[in-house]
Amino acid sequence: MSHSIQLTYLVSTGLFIFALKWMNRPETARRGVLSGVAAMLLAVGGTLAMPGIVHFGDIAAAVILGTAVGIPLSRVPLTAVPQRTALSHAFGGLAAGLVGTAKYYLWLSEGGGELTRFRVAAIGAEVLLGFLTFSGSLMAAGKLQEVIPTRPITYRNQNVLNLSLLGLAVGGCVVLVLNPDWHWLFPIIISLALAFGVLLILPIGGADMPTVISLLNSYAGLSAVAMGFVLDNKLLITAGALDGSSGFVLSVIMCRAMNRSFTNVLFGAFGAVAEKSSQAARGEVKPVSAEEAYAILEGARSVLVVPGYGLAVAQAQHAVRELMELLEKNGTEIRYAIHPVAGRMPGHMNVLLAEANVPYDQLYEMEAVNRIMDTVDVCLVIGANDVVNPAARENKGSPIYGMPIIEVDRARTVIVLKRSMAPGFAGIENDLFYKPNTRMLFGDAKASLNALIGEFKAT
Fold it and tell me: What is the DSSP string of 184-252?
């Protein structure tokens, strides 16, 4: 029996690896998701087949409860996917923390003979990472849902306090390793981990949430690795390592996309800096009507669409695809430019456009479109703000100076679809709106796109 279970785990590990590989490209992403689902089914099935499991009724109840919670979570709108993802990380961290807590007290009640120093160290890492991921992810979800203020909440010596809490928690784990029977120390470690998770996210602004989500994903994976050592489960170790490393790599990619470091994201209070340092852009705003925007688009040979979170809020992805199809019939070349941190979670815009069946070969990364930007007739910016702000290139006093952006201001004409002149999630005014080649089409993005569609169909 044990050999067949280990073989099941080996196949499951391979499927997890293929899932990550296939999800690297939109064309194979669906295959990657199916591979991940199959891997998880095999992992759960192999675990249930292990001898010694006697409480199948409790497991069945947990499965029913998890399904009852999971089905509604799977049906949230795309605008709520970032916070739903943060909640998933919270559940994963909580599960790891609770398993570590249960194993510690179970082994302690059996005399403490099983509490070797290695196992206590693994339990300490599992509980510390699990509970800080739980509270930190809840905070991130709250900021994304705007239940908690999205701006950074800062106070004097916050970084010293945060690092002191983490140091005390790690120190407590070290003391527990040396004295495994000091059970009174365990709740203190849990409390410190929960407090650190809250205080870690509190001073981080909403604009940094995509990076924070991927970093919390990494923490959840590392807590699963520690749980694998505690439970002596090789699959948990390998799957957790894959999750942790992929989350870390994604965080690195996103930090590079913003030209910032981990320490700046975690301890920089970006939104607060923006509030103090941003300068009002100068120039004239040129609003246009749908009829005028239609005339500009109708004569364009090439159109580049830059989607942002506002597109998701307006649920206008189907409307933009319909408009682009009409332009294609008019002989226009269509491209979509995807910035690595557009939206509020990694890959947010890719998922949004895939839902509207936008062809994969029309999606281009930031570097690719910047190389041809001078040849683009019209850039249609829908809901994007900070990722197209030329202040990142021109204003050394801007908090986003040096951040790679989609340089739409170099196109012949830019049409920005926006409700108002309000700044983006980072709280920085956008210099693009005042450029001489920019036209502002104010209103709900979906309504504006449908008005443009009506103009095309009328002619």
Answer: THHHHHHHHHHHHHHHHHTTS-GGGHHHHHHHHHHHHHHHHHHHHHHHT-HHHHHHHHHHHHHHHHHHH
CA pair distance 278, 428, nearest whole angstrom: 6
The set of catalytic residues is 386
Q: Which residue has the tokens 């994304």?
A: 144
Chain centre to alpha carbon of residue 260: 16
User: 130: exposed, middle or buried (C-beta count within 10 Å: 0-12, 13-18, 19+)?
Assistant: buried
- pLDDT tens, residue by residue, 339-389: 888 877 777 888 888 888 888 889 998 999 999 999 999 999 998 888 899
Please give the Cα distance from 118 to 124 (Å, whole number).
10
* pLDDT for residue 270 is more than 60: no
Extract the tokens encoding 379: 């850039």
Q: Find out whether 313 and 420 touch, Cβ atoms under 8 Å.
A: no
State the amino acid at position 330 in one-letter form: N
Which residues partner with 269 through β-bridges? none
Q: Is the dihedral of CA 85, 88, 90, 96 positive or negative?
A: negative
Tokens at 454, concatenated: 């009506």
**DSSP strands (E only) in 326-412:** 333-338, 363-365, 378-382
- Contact by Cβ (8 Å): 310, 419: yes
Alpha-carbon distance of 25 to 21, in angstroms, equals 8
**Residue (of 246, 229, 234, 249) closest to 17 by Cα position:** 246
Q: CA–CA separation, 418 vs 421, rounded Å?
A: 7
Answer yes or no: are the C-beta atoms of 400 and 391 closer than 8 Å: yes
